[in-house]
Amino acid sequence: MSDIEVTGRILHLQRLSTEDGPGIRTTVFFKGCPLRCVWCHNPESLSTQPQTQWFAVRCLGCQTCIESCPDHCLTMTDSGLIIDRERCQGCGKCAEACPAGALETLGKVIAVDELLYELLKDRAYYEKSGGGVTLSGGEPTLQAEFAEGLLYSLKKEGIHTALDTCGLTSQHTLEGLLPYTDLVLFDLKLLDPVLHQQHTGASNQRILDNLLFIRQTMEKQGYPQDLWVRTPLIPEVTTTQENLTAIGEYLALNLNSHVSRWELCAFNNLCRDQYTRLGMVWDFANTPLLTQDTLYQCEQIAKNSGVNPEIVIASGATRALDPL
Fold first, then answer.
1. How far apart are CA 17 and CA 24, in angstroms?
2. Burial class (CB in 10 A: 0-12, 13-18, 19+), 114
């Protein structure tokens, strides 16, 4: 393919990351996701459109933002700034006007070449650590042309690439992305189709089909070179013995020689403030982190599920004691 001059909408870059693939990496967070997981820890990535967030602790109460809003979406109340999110277009005028940086616009439109320029600034880290660039989100496959152009450009520069995906996309999209992808990080949250629909808002049939399609592509085309499966450990949802055993049995039966890592990612509640800043309610706001014992138990269930136990890795922060 030729160089693609297209733009995409991203949230931000996370430099010096060690959690989204091998080595030291820069992770590009895309905006927009087809799933609505009730535990989502990146609520700012759900919508494909730009959004405005408000930091109460920074606000001076000067109301400059209200005066600058062309759509009259902002109201100052005794409890703070109220944003009419039905009317807000995310134009960013309020954020530009705010003297204290209390308002921020989420979702930057950027061209492939501009983003590539930023990513190549970290080339030395990639080369010395065996790292690279990971496309994450949100869901990168929602912006397929932009993601393909970026992956292609990175590969031309000799940069290791990883695609972090929820798997809910078309095989046509995967056919365009996989030739330029060294590693796929594939989310497998719930194997039971009813529970998956209930907790993510979508069926898992296409997700499972795409996982098998990636296996097929690895066998026939030789890419991607590596496949990691990730399961978020959500208390009382994905942490059950039934779910972890079912996922392990599925991997052992269908992908045993293709998955080099099954990562169990401990529940993270650090996004609570992000929901507040976006005016959203989070069902898991009062859910504590897993205990170390629970994380260990989940790891043992996974290791005993039928997969090669050496590929199972549990990671993430835990709490030391149960709350009083």
1. 6
2. exposed
- Give pLDDT tens digits for 17-27: 999 999 999 99
Strands (E), 201-255: 226-233
Distance from C-alpha of 285 to C-alpha of 295, rounded to nearest angstrom: 20
Q: Tell me the C-alpha to C-alpha distance, in Å, between residue 293 and each of 76, 80, 98, 243.
A: 46, 41, 46, 18
CATH of domain 51-106: 3.30.70.20
Residue 93: phi and psi, rounded to 5, are -65, -40
Q: Is the pLDDT of residue 262 over 70?
A: yes
How far apart are the C-alpha atoms of 159 and 22, rounded to whole Å?
Answer: 12
Query: Which residue spans of the chain are classified as CATH 3.30.70.20?
Result: 51-106
Residues 166/33, Cβ–Cβ less than 8 Å: yes
In the block, residue with structure tokens 């997981």: 37
Strand pairing class (226-233; 259-266): parallel
Least confident of 75-79, 179-183, 234-238: 75-79
Q: Is the dihedral of CA 210, 211, 213, 217 positive or negative?
A: positive
Q: What Rg, from alpha-carbon coordinates, does the chain have?
A: 21
**pLDDT tens-place string over residues 285-303:** 999 999 999 999 999 999 9
pLDDT (average), residues 103-109: 94
Rounded to whole angstroms, the Cα distance separating 170 from 197 reads 18
CATH architecture of 7-47+112-315: Alpha-Beta Barrel (3.20)
Question: How far from chain centre, in Å, is Cα 37?
Answer: 11
Joined together, the tokens standing for residue 113 give: 């070449």
